[in-house]
Design brief:
mainly beta, single chain, four-stranded mixed β-sheet, DUF3892 domain-containing protein, three-stranded antiparallel β-sheet, 2 helices, DUF3892
C-alpha cells in the first residue's frame, strides 16, 4: 500500500478583495489565501484542492512538531477553500504562516519579497 505524499507548508500569499456590505452599505476589504508555499514551490488554492482530492496531504507544523492537516471545505454557494483540521490551538494555522496576517515571527530581510518572487508577480 502506497502512502499519500505529504507536503509541509511554510508560507501563504494573501489576496485582498473589496466589496460593499449589504448590511451597512460601506466598502469592506476582505483577505483570503491566494496561494500556499513549501520551500521554493507554490500552489494556488485550486491546485491544493485538486491535489488533496488526488490523495496528497498538506500540513502545517508548529514549533513543537505537532501537525495540523489541510482539509478542503465545499460550501454550497462558494468555491472550495482550504483550512486546517481543527486542533488544540486557538490561532489559525494557515494564517499564522509567513505571509499571513497573524504571523508573529521574524520578518523577511532584504529587498525582495520571497513570496512575490516565488509566485512570479
Amino acid at each position: 500500500m502506497l502512502l499519500a505524499p505529504e507536503i509541509k507548508l511554510t508560507g501563504v500569499r494573501m489576496s485582498a478583495a473589496q466589496g460593499v456590505s449589504i448590511f451597512t452599505l460601506l466598502t469592506v476589504t476582505t483577505q483570503h489565501i491566494e496561494a500556499v508555499t513549501s520551500g521554493l514551490r507554490s500552489w494556488t488554492v485550486a491546485e491544493v484542492v485538486g491535489l488533496v482530492d488526488g490523495g496528497y496531504r498538506f500540513y502545517v507544523e508548529d514549533r513543537l512538531g505537532v501537525r495540523a492537516y489541510v482539509e478542503v471545505v465545499r460550501p454550497l454557494w462558494h468555491l472550495p477553500y482550504i483550512r486546517t483540521h481543527r486542533d488544540d490551538t486557538t490561532s489559525d494555522n494557515l494564517l499564522s504562516l509567513p505571509g499571513g496576517p497573524f504571523y508573529t515571527g521574524a520578518q523577511p530581510r532584504g529587498l525582495l519579497d520571497p513570496y512575490r518572487t516565488l509566485l512570479g508577480s
